[in-house]
Structures are given as C-alpha cells and as structure tokens.
Amino acid sequence: MAPKMKPPFFIEGITATQAHLSSRSFGIPLSGMSAISLRTVAALARRSVTSLLSLAGTGEQNRIELTAAVSSFFMGLLCVRLLYYSRNGVEMKTIARTFLETAAAHLENDFLPKIRTCVDLLGEEDIWSRASEAENSVGNLLLHLAGNVRQWIISGMGGARDARERAREFADRGSLSKAEALGRLEATVAEACAVLRRLDAADLETAKSIQGFDTSGLQAVFHVVEHFSYHTGQIVFITKLRTRRDLKFYNL
C-alpha cells in the first residue's frame, strides 16, 4: 500500500491565494462581486484538488502533475471571472438570472415530475413503508424535501418566518395520505420557484445564516437543488424496488 502523501505545494498555494483574494481587488472594479464569492471559488478549487489526489496514480510525479493541471484550471477560471465578468455588471446579472431560472426549472420541471410519477405508482401503504428504522420512507422524504426547500429558499432567501421542525419530518409514520404529502411538496416548490424568480445577482452574493450554517445566497440555492436531486434519486430507487418497473425517465 502506497504511503499517504503530504499534499503538494499547490494546495498551500491555493490556500494563500484564497486569503490574498479576500483582501485584494487588483485594481479591477468588482461591480458588486463580494469577497464571499471570491473565497467560495478559491475554496472550491482547493477542495477539488485535494479530492482528486486520491484518484490519481500511485506515482508521486503523476500526482504532482495532475494537481498542477487541476490547480491551474480552477485558478484560471477564477481569473476569467475576475477579468471578464467583473468589468461589466450586465454580464453578471445575466449569469445570475440564468442560474436562478435553471435552479427553478430543475425543481419544478425535472425532479418534481419524477417524484409525482413515483407517488402515482405506489400505494398508500407503500408510501410509508420502510425496510428498517435505519431507512426513510417515501412519505418521510416528501416531508423532508418540503421542509428543506421552505427553510432554505422561502425563509432563507425569501425572508419568510422559519418554523421548520426537521425531526418531525423523519418521525412521521403516516399522518398524511400520499396525495396530501405530495400536495404539500408541490405547493412548497411552487412558492420557492416564485422566490427564486424574484432574486438577483446581489441576493446570490449576500451572506446568509440558514439552519445554523454561514453561507451565501448562491450556495443556498445550489444546496437546495443538489439536495432535492439526491432525495429524488432515493425515491426513484425505492419505487423501482417496490414496483419492479423500469420507470423510463430517460430514453437515450
């Protein structure tokens, strides 16, 4: 077994760059871009390179070359953002609008229809059935998704009061019919998408504290989309197990 390598100097370099970017604008008008967004991009680069080290070949030279290439790539993206998008606020507004509209489209036109198909195929007992207490039922996942979207988008980004009781989403053992549970999620997604379509570039860069986490508006929206996708996959998998059907979501 190859010895665990010390992260090469590129990692420390990105860390230093991250700190440097937090306090410097290099004379470029940032047009509303905050230090938060710059730190986020630099942190992403650092985490990506660290993760890819484990996927590289065992040879030290291979690892160093891969790290150098990936470091250069991500830092190049950061420079492109600084030199191109920050020169004109119009481009940044367009990027923000595209991001927000894409997030809403994924929630209401991609993930939600898949969940609706699954719920239609499952019976009332199937919705709340679980193989063990270590697993969640489809019903619990519907409640959990509604709770997450409401807390992070409707409250966190839209300013509504946060009254979430997360533990109850997993403790429920069948208080709602499948139509009621799905209806709650559909109503929540519709409300959240309305919030997303009211946001702008400044909202994405605003610092937020949601569910005890310090984040930005952009990170909050991104979290909701990836979290919704993750649990949609679980619901699809459970449905396939219980119905033994090919749901044919993709015809490639």
Fraction of residues in helices? 55-70%
Architecture of the largest domain, CATH level 2? Up-down Bundle
CATH class of the largest domain: Mainly Alpha
Q: N-to-C terminal Cα separation, in Å?
A: 41 Å
- What structural class results from the helix and strand content? mainly alpha
Describe the sheet with the most strands: 2 strands, antiparallel
The ordered H/E elements are HHHHHHHHHEEH
How are the strands of the biggest sheet laid out side by side?
1-2
Number of strands: 2
For CATH, the homologous superfamily of the largest domain is named as: dinb family like domain
The rounded Rg comes to 22 Å
| Tally of separate helices | 10
How does the overall form come out from the CA principal axes? Answer: globular
| Low-confidence runs | 1-36
Summed up, the domain count is 2
Q: Mean of residue pLDDT?
A: 78
Question: What portion of the residues fall into strands of 2 or more residues?
Answer: under 5%
Q: What is the CATH topology of the largest domain?
A: Four Helix Bundle (Hemerythrin (Met), subunit A)
3D structure, described in words:
With 252 residues, the protein is mainly alpha-helical. The chain folds into two domains: 9-87, no CATH class; 93-243, dinb family like domain (Four Helix Bundle (Hemerythrin (Met), subunit A)). Helices cover 68% and strands 3% of the residues. The protein has ten helices and two strands, in the order H-H-H-H-H-H-H-H-H-E-E-H. The protein has helices spanning 9-23, 35-53, 60-83, 89-121, 124-128, 138-155, 166-171, 178-196, 201-205, 217-243, and strands at residues 207-210, 213-216. Strands 1-2 form a two-stranded antiparallel ribbon. It is globular and about 50 Å long.
